[in-house]
Write a structure and sequence with these properties.
It contains ten helices and six strands. It folds into two domains: about 130 residues, Rossmann fold (3-Layer(aba) Sandwich), CATH 3.40.50.2300; about 80 residues, Orthogonal Bundle (Arc Repressor Mutant, subunit A). By secondary structure, the protein is α/β, with parallel strands linked by helices.
Length: about 220
């Protein structure tokens, strides 16, 4: 796996590079800004870009803008965005632009090495990885007209874990229920969100994007 890191904090940038190299991963570039990120993507053709949300010069949304541009240049690029805290508008804007090979984690998750590496590999393998704290905030905002209000508390729990990018077996393990129960809850979620079977739509992705888009309208 070839990785580019874009992080303006030198300690975190070098710490990430050391961690990933210790895991046998190929960090081809570690840069400190959005322009350097795009140059590294063009030069090295990485599999994954790990990108900080806030970078110079304004420390607002440079990382998100650069991540979107990097994906435009290389649609097969996996992007794992890191943020110091939950930034709902940025998270939903990035994730609703494409449902695969994308992740959004809080920086504190890096210290939980096993979880961080699991999210990195999941994104690199074509899935999604959304920080549980981001998912929780998106799911708990009040909106009386949302179809999410139709879901039972347990169905909301299942959708929350599904939104992190986990499969049925991992959801069952997290919630301490059987895979059969998870399958039943997911079928119910699809029904309550009016997601009929179709060859053109992945209903798991559609369920996740439904609440992300709903949250973006309310941010």
């Amino acid at each position: 796996m070839r990785i580019v890191i874009a992080e303006d904090d030198p300690l975190l940038r070098e710490g990430l590079a050391l961690l990933l190299r210790a895991e046998g991963l190929d960090v081809v570039a570690a840069v400190d800004g959005p322009d350097a990120l795009l140059a590294a993507v063009d030069e090295h053709h990485p599999d994954v870009a790990i990108v900080d949300v806030r970078m110079p010069p304004t420390h607002t949304d440079e990382g998100i803008v650069a991540a979107v541009e990097a994906r435009r240049r290389r649609p097969d690029l996996a992007v794992l965005v890191l943020s110091a805290y939950v930034e709902q508008a940025f998270a939903t804007d990035l994730l609703t632009r494409g449902a695969t090979r994308l992740g959004y984690l809080l920086k504190e998750r890096v210290g939980r090495v096993e979880q961080f590496l699991d999210a990195l590999h999941r994104v690199a393998d074509g899935g999604t990885a959304i920080d549980p704290d981001v998912v929780a905030q998106l799911l708990t905002r009040n909106h009386p007209d949302s179809r999410l209000d139709r879901l039972s508390p347990r169905e909301r729990d299942v959708l929350a874990v599904m939104a992190e990018g986990l499969g049925n077996a991992a959801i069952a393990e997290r919630l301490v229920v059987s895979e059969g129960a998870v399958h039943k809850h997911i079928r119910s979620i699809f029904g309550k969100l009016d997601l009929a079977p179709t060859d053109r739509t992945d209903r798991r992705v559609a369920a996740v994007l439904h609440y992300l888009e709903d949250a973006r309208r309310r941010v």
